[in-house]
UniProtKB/TrEMBL annotation:
Gene3D superfamilies: Ribonuclease Inhibitor (3.80.10.10)
SUPFAM superfamilies per the UniProt record, alphabetical: RNI-like (SSF52047)
Organism per entry: Carya illinoinensis
GO biological process: SCF-dependent proteasomal ubiquitin-dependent protein catabolic process
Entry GO terms, CC: SCF ubiquitin ligase complex
Taxonomic placement: Eukaryota, Viridiplantae, Streptophyta, Embryophyta, Tracheophyta
Domain of life, source organism: Eukaryota
Protein name per Swiss-Prot or TrEMBL: Transport inhibitor response 1
């Protein structure tokens, strides 16, 4: 979302409680817009300026933070320097969630002392994020509040494994950790040993396009967490190798898992020990984790894994699949077997017309189906739109109008979702609606 910010908008907003500019592209056309909050404005509860790419008026930010006694969430952008953070924390010791700005500065004892003292005064702080451009020497300043933290988001922090081990070892009550793969297997071992209350783990790649591993992060780190964290329910894990044995161990260790998303960076990667597909491993996940609601598959997979999913994943609500399967049978197993499925995302799989049309009625019980780079033809999309008038069936193809090519020609993308109001009329020029009434089809 692009948001053009005019400071005049703020003048009448005397009762504004939350200003969240997250995941937005913001153009500030008015200069020091924070100073435009009225002097008697005191109602801010949550302020998120993390996405801003320029400096804000620190004096205006400091005044705003200081006069809002109910401020609970403050997320800063990387232009807020580390030596200013202590002042903000002293003015808002009631904060529950903090996103730091740049966590780097020339290492100075006075800055460290002020920062450590300010963090010590934040008795309610439960969530930390930010940590851009970290200088490791300043990390111990947060140790005084680590034992109270429930959430730690380091997904933008290039902190290396030794410092991460020291940090997570202080966070005995942590429930959620987002981190880059710099944590390595050793860091995940420390996490498993220290954070027994962990519920959610997300490990993101630091170099997803690199040809070779840049850090020693393997399946063993995830196995360790599954063994050491009995309350773990949600996993998103990027890695470069996996084995059926590891997946089976994780499934046995954590049958309480409700969300399991494994992203092996190289498509079609087999079990690195046996060179076999990972069907059996994912089969163990869906068989043992009876309450699984969300699943993402990756690696070398055949139609067999979809048979496992259709047979066992009866509570599954969202499934994401890429570069998997052998034939239409895989899609048929999913649509005919997953009773509670609400959202299905498929990319680069050999699924086509037969399974889609045979299970058309299932789509009316779902929120949406997304297919890209599969084997679905334009003719099948037309038939689906005619057969199921309660669905919006949209063909997305930037190559031009699909009806100028043979109907057997595969389309680029298909988006199907439920509707009670008929086709929408706000599509860009590369989207076509397949309606029951040909007169309603847009091109």
């Amino acid at each position: 979302m692009v948001f053009i910010f005019a400071s005049c908008f703020l003048v009448p907003c005397r009762n504004l409680r939350e200003l969240d500019l997250g995941e937005s592209e913001v153009e500030d056309l008015s200069g020091h817009w924070l100073s435009r909050f009225p002097d008697n404005y005191t109602s801010m509860v949550s302020l998120n300026i993390a996405c801003l790419g320029w400096e804000v008026s620190f004096s205006a930010l400091e005044r705003l933070v200081g006069r809002c006694p109910n401020l609970r969430t403050l997320r800063l952008n990387r232009a807020v320097p580390l030596d200013k953070l202590a002042n903000l924390l002293c003015r808002a010791p009631q904060l529950v969630e903090l996103g730091t700005g740049a966590y780097s500065s020339e290492l100075r004892p006075d800055v460290f002392s002020n920062l450590s003292g300010a963090f010590s005064g934040c008795k309610e702080l439960k969530s930390l994020s930010g940590f851009w451009d970290v200088v490791p020497g300043y990390l111990p300043a947060v140790y005084p509040i680590c034992s109270k933290l429930k959430s730690l988001n380091l997904s933008y922090a290039t902190i290396q494994s030794p410092e991460l081990i020291k940090l997570v070892s202080q966070c005995q009550n942590l429930q959620r950790l987002w981190v880059l793969d710099y944590i390595e297997d050793a860091g995940l071992d420390a996490l498993a040993a220290s954070c027994k209350d962990l519920r959610e783990l997300r490990v993101f790649p630091s170099d997803p396009f690199g040809q070779e591993p840049n850090v020693p992060l393997t399946e063993q780190g995830l196995v360790s967490v599954s063994e050491g964290c009995p309350k773990l329910q949600s996993v998103l894990y990027f890695c470069r190798q996996m084995s059926n044995a590891a997946l089976m161990t994780i499934a046995r260790n954590r049958p309480n898992m409700t969300r399991f998303r494994l992203c092996i960076i190289e498509p079609h990667t087999p079990d690195y020990l046996t060179r076999q597909p990972l069907d059996v491993g994912f089969g163990a996940i869906v068989e043992h984790c009876k309450d699984l609601r969300r699943l993402s598959l990756s690696g070398l997979l055949t139609d067999r894994v979809f048979e496992y999913i259709g047979t066992h994943a009866k509570k599954l609500e969202m499934l994401s699949v890429a570069f998997a399967g052998e034939s239409d049978l895989g899609l048929h197993h999913i649509l005919s077997g997953c009773d509670n499925l609400r959202k299905l995302e498929i990319r680069d799989c050999p699924f086509g017309d037969k399974a889609l049309l045979a299970n058309a009625a299932k789509l009316e019980t779902m929120r949406s189906l997304w297919m890209s780079s599969c084997s679905v033809s334009f003719g099948a999309c037309k038939l689906l739109g005619q057969k199921m008038p309660g669905l919006n069936v949209e063909v997305i193809d930037e190559r031009g109008p699909p009806d100028l090519r043979p109907e057997s020609c595969p389309i680029d993308k298909l988006y199907v979702y439920r509707t009670v109001s008929g086709p929408r009329f706000d599509m860009p020029g590369f989207v076509w609606t397949m309606a029951e009434n040909p007169a309603l089809r847009l091109s």
